[in-house]
Amino acid sequence: MRRLPWRVARLAESRWENDSARTLVLEVPGWPGHLAGQHVDVRLTAEDGYSTQRSYSIAAPADGERVELTVERVPDGEVSPYLADVLEIGDEVEIRGPVGGWFVWRPDGAAPVLLVAGGSGIVPLMAMVRQRRRAGSRTPFRLLYSTRDPGRRYYAEELRRPDPGLDVTYVYTRAVPEGWSRPPGRLMLDDLAAGGWPAEFAPDSYVCGPTGFVERAADLLLSLGHDPGRVRTERFGPTGG
Fold first, then answer.
1. Is residue 66 part of a domain?
2. What is the pTM of this model?
3. Range of the structural domain that residue 223 is part of
4. Measured distance CA(76)–CA(58) in Å, rounded
5. Are residues 119 and 174 in the same domain?
6. pLDDT digits over 172-215, tens only?
7. What Pfam families does UniProt report for this protein, alphabetically (predicted)?
């Protein structure tokens, strides 16, 4: 199997999604394209030759030689604080990819789609939302997004805009907006029953987030009768940032 090459990526644009998460729009000459749901490896190399790398999900569908990542700053991390706080327009990093072929969504899919995100697990799922919109797909989407509080949301303005065929439900685990009817707490069976698709609709489900969240959400979907073969998961754990 051919090894993926490292490519030089230059920061072309950036924007903050919240106080700790920054979206990076990278220009990558020779980029072969990617599918919604794939990720890349990012490598940083110091002047003394020391290098380190981390994996990041791609936040947007293929757009020529542009690759969009959303990076959350991890305290005391090696890579994320540099990408979030130091990298400037015109600066370069190395990336390798795209990686992954199971946790992807293609616009030709006919089944309804359920996206279940925990925290920064929204990133590859947002690529699917944006791919659907760009392709003019009529596939109905439901997004269930669990996050600690309203200030931790990613893509908040974009997800507020009307998007026919996309329904968004939030679950807040620590603090809720004023007047919010659901008390703060972790994802529950009732949340998935109300915000997801009935199992008899045979949806394609994509679950992404921290390992504990993903395992719990997948178990809840199975307890609701969803086909295990249609529940795809992508999880992440502590990596040092």
1. yes
2. 0.96
3. 113-236
4. 23
5. yes
6. 999 999 999 999 999 999 999 999 999 999 999 999 999 999 99
7. FAD_binding_6, NAD_binding_1
